[in-house]
Structures are given as structure tokens and as C-alpha cells.
Design goal:
2 domains; TIM Barrel; 19% strand
């Protein structure tokens, strides 16, 4: 049978276990995905017949699903891998953040565009290899104005999608990182040039504790919208309301942002939603605030992850990693498992305090975790109209995961395949990653970059920053001729 040229797909992935995340949550146990011009043209069962394509990928033994979206991240903080071992245990979150900022800004003062590019390129490579097709960034280390340029250029060159927040802060950071609202908005306008079909530039101020004058929050929000850009705020209150009370405000952080008009103009990125009051879940859902939970961080403060409260309010939150500064592993499968265990921790704490057990439909399982890590992440980054599901018309952002592996088998004739994938899967099982139809990872390797070169250049950039900023004064003495924690290094 002859087909017109326009009906022929660029690529056909056939014979995969296809998890669509479409409105019907269809799963084709033997299915196909076809795409052309960067968009999906057809998804279906092998039994329905296959569309013609110029290139065909045999995906037997693989799961095809939407790419993961890292819903909360700080791109430059990749430089701080291993930091948690230096500071553990973290018993006081606010104090830990204060100590962190000293090191972070010492490094940031030496992170020019070139060095930042090298460090963030490594971070982007790691995320891609683990199956991420989109990420968030919350850039607030503005000691050097060109640092963000290097960071976002690295992400642009990676081929990933990004929801990139340039934060305007004047409190809790060293003087060199502080900005007036006008100066910050001028920078935001300059950085708008990074906007593309894959990158979204947004304005932010981290959270209320990073602006000394609360009225500045409104000015940043309105200024961002005037530039035609979306807005984000990290709804995290590590003080558990104490800082709001010190400002004379009775209520929670969502109440506070609403009082300043920040929830009134359409969907906003709303960060992690940490320490919300019980009534604020419904409030955020009412105002279409998009959240992305960071399960690993909730083990730091021992709170767990009250994902049931978000789900009960009708929200599908995303999942984020908060960068290697919080989670050295950027593995989305580990993050999903942490969400499951984190919910269990939160429920047990609530029961111990006399609260009620969530209804069964609100407990996490493999399907819900996959929803959160893919479609939920896309929603949190305001990208759900572009990606997050495998359906005709959406961008061809997807991953192929090799499940013909000892760590996944046996799957009981695939009855437990998704359960085994969420509970035992690893980012190293990701075989291929596509963004807008472009294969950025093939057989686990980057198609754009020399991976060894990426690692070498990141190491060199960090070595120069360490030398110039005298970061050795913060680092463990695990070098030849020295000792650390009773171990002798030779």
C-alpha cells in the first residue's frame, strides 16, 4: 500500500511496552510510538497495524514512556556533590542553610560563564542519561551576573527542556548577591533571550524570606508578568511559620502569597510546598499553583512526604531532586521510591499525633509514582500542553528503558513489570532519550557530547574555582599525607 510522504513518520518505535499517560492512562503491552517533525503522530497496539516510517527502532524488552521531568532543581549546585557527608547529620534545617550559603557564595563569586557552563553541562548530561527530558532551575546566586548565562547555555546545548527561574533576592545572601527589584527585572529582561521552544525563562525571588520588603514580592511578580514571562516561587517555609509571625502575619505561606496578590494571575510554579497548613492545599489547588515535591529532602527534616494531602486536594504534584547539594543521586527511580517511603513516614507521624490514616486511593503505588515523575513534573513546569504524555500532537519527549535485566526480572508475565520498575529500577537502565524527536541518548551514551570531555572540563572548572575561592578550608582532608575521621590517606 502506498502512503503519501507527509504520512510517513520520521521514526517508529515498535514492539515496546508503551506507557502513554494519556487521559485514559492507556498501556499497550505490545505497542508502538511514531513521530515526525518532533511531534508524536501515532500511538497504539502492534495488533492495530504499524504506520510507515523512515527509521524503525525495535524496542522488544523495553518500556517506552514519557521522559521524566525534574520539577525542582538548582543547576549550578552540581558542583557540591558529596557535600552532605561533610555536614551530616542535619538536625537544624535553617542553620544548615545559613552555613551552606557561605560556601555556595564563596564558589559563586568565581563561577563565570565558562566555568558554570562546564559544571552545568555535566549536570545536564547526568540527568539525560537517567531519563530526564526536562528540568527546573532556581538560580539565585547572582554574585556574578554572567554565571546564569553559562548555566542556561549549557542546558540549551544539551537539548533538554527547562523552566528556568532567575531569582531576585536581597536578604539571607551576601551583599554581592543582592539586587534591587529594578536591577533584577532588567536582568530578567536581558535573559529573556534564552526563551525558545525548549526553554522557558521565568521570574522569581526564591521565597518570602529572601526579600526584606514584602512589597517587593508583588513588584517582582507584576514586573515578571509585564515582561510576558511566567512566575515561580519556592513555597518552602523552614521556619514553620515563625518568620511570618515575626513579620506580623498570622497564617501560612500560601495565605501570605495570596495576600500579596501572587496567586491571582493564572498558573504559577509553586516550588516544594513544604510546611503548608492543612487548609492551604485546597487554596493552592483553587489557584492552580503547580508544585514539585523533593522526597529526599523530607528525610532531612524527618517530616516525610504528605503526598496524600496534595492528591486529596486534586493536585498531581511533580517530583524533584533539588540538585546534588541535597541528593547526590539524581536517579528518578530512587526519587520515586523515596516518595513512597516518605509518604509512609508522614503517615506514621500523623497517626502518632492522633491523626487519621489517608484513604487507600491516596497511597502511592507504581502507577501514581510514574504519573508524578512524568506528567506531574511536566505540569509543575507548566509544560503539560507540550509534553508529559505519549499522545498524538504532543512533543516526542520519551525514554526507552531496558527491562530485560536481572534486576527487574521476573515480572510474572509483566503483571508486576511497572511495580518492579519503580521499586527496583535504575537510571542506568535508560537506553534511549528523545526530546522533540531528537535522540539525545542512544544505548546509554550521549549523541551530542563526548562524555569523558564533559567530565574533564567540569573537574577542571571546579579545581580553578576551589583554588581561587580557597574552598580547601571547607573540604575534607582526604588527600595523600593527611587524615580524616581517623582514616589515614597515603
Amino acid at each position: 500500500m502506498n502512503h503519501p510522504a507527509e504520512a510517513i513518520a520520521d521514526t517508529l518505535i515498535r514492539d515496546a511496552y508503551v506507557v502513554t499517560l494519556d487521559a485514559g492512562r492507556r498501556v499497550f503491552t505490545r505497542g508502538f510510538v511514531a513521530f515526525a517533525g518532533g511531534r508524536i503522530t501515532a500511538v497504539g497496539s502492534m495488533a492495530d497495524g504499524l504506520p510507515p516510517a523512515r527509521a524503525v527502532i525495535d524496542a522488544r524488552g523495553m518500556v517506552a514512556m514519557p521522559g521524566f521531568a525534574n520539577g525542582h532543581n538548582h543547576l549550578i549546585q552540581n558542583a557540591f556533590r558529596g557535600y552532605n557527608d561533610d555536614r551530616w547529620p542535619v538536625l537544624d534545617i535553617p542553620a544548615a542553610v545559613r552555613r551552606l550559603l557561605e560556601q555556595l557564595f564563596a564558589a559563586a563569586g568565581r563561577m563565570d560563564a565558562e566555568r558554570t557552563y562546564a559544571i552545568v553541562r555535566l549536570h545536564a548530561l547526568e540527568m539525560l542519561k537517567a531519563g530526564y527530558t526536562a528540568t527546573h532551575d532556581e538560580h539565585f546566586t547572582n554574585a556574578r551576573k554572567d554565571s546564569v548565562d553559562g548555566s542556561w547555555q549549557a542546558l540549551a546545548d544539551s537539548g533538554m527542556r527547562g523552566f528556568l527561574c532567575r531569582c531576585i533576592v536581597d536578604d539571607r545572601v551576601p551583599e554581592e548577591g543582592r539586587e534591587s527589584v529594578d536591577a533584577g527585572l532588567a536582568e530578567l529582561e536581558r535573559l529573556r533571550a534564552f526563551s525558545s521552544d525548549r526553554l522557558t525563562v521565568a521570574g522569581s525571588f526564591v521565597n518570602y524570606s529572601f526579600r526584606a520588603d514584602p512589597e517587593d514580592m508583588r513588584r517582582i511578580h507584576e514586573g515578571t508578568l509585564a515582561l510576558g514571562l511566567p512566575f515561580g516561587v519556592d513555597m518552602t517555609d523552614n521556619s514553620r511559620g515563625a518568620m511570618l509571625k515575626a513579620r506580623g502575619f498570622e497564617g501560612g505561606q500560601a495565605d501570605y502569597y495570596r495576600a500579596h496578590g501572587l496567586l491571582d494571575h493564572g498558573a504559577i510554579y509553586a516550588g516544594k510546598g513544604v510546611n503548608l497548613q492543612r487548609h492551604e492545599y485546597a487554596l493552592l489547588a483553587q489557584h492552580d499553583a503547580r508544585l514539585a515535591l523533593v522526597p529526599t529532602l523530607r528525610f532531612f527534616d524527618g517530616q516525610g512526604v504528605p503526598v496524600h494531602d496534595f492528591l486529596a486536594a486534586g493536585m498531581l504534584p511533580g517530583l524533584g531532586t533539588d540538585a546534588p547539594l541535597v541528593s547526590d543521586s539524581q536517579d528518578p527511580f530512587e526519587n520515586m521510591r523515596h516518595a513512597i517511603f516518605g509518604q509512609n513516614l508522614a503517615v506514621k507521624a500523623r497517626l502518632a499525633a492522633g491523626g487519621e490514616r489517608p484513604e487507600a486511593a491516596l497511597w502511592l503505588n507504581a502507577e501514581r509514582c510514574i504519573e508524578m515523575a512524568t506528567l506531574g513534573g511536566a505540569r509543575s513546569l507548566l509544560l503539560e500542553n507540550t509534553c508529559g504524555a505519549l499522545e498524538a500532537g504532543k512533543a516526542a519527549d520519551l525514554v526507552l528503558i531496558d527491562v530485560a535485566r536481572a534486576e527487574i526480572a521476573p515480572t510474572w508475565d509483566d503483571s508486576r513489570l511497572l511495580g518492579a520498575l519503580v521499586w527496583g529500577g535504575k537510571g542506568s537502565q535508560v537506553h534511549s532519550v528523545f526530546v522533540a524527536g531528537e535522540r539525545l541518548i542512544e544505548d546509554g551514551r550521549s549523541t551530542r557530547w563526548d562524555e569523558e570531555e564533559v567530565i574533564r572540563e567540569a573537574d577542571a572548572a571546579l579545581a580553578a574555582i576551589t583554588r581561587e575561592a580557597d574552598l580547601d578550608r571547607f573540604l575534607p582532608t582526604r588527600r595523600a599525607g593527611e587524615s580524616y575521621r581517623g582514616w589515614a590517606y597515603h
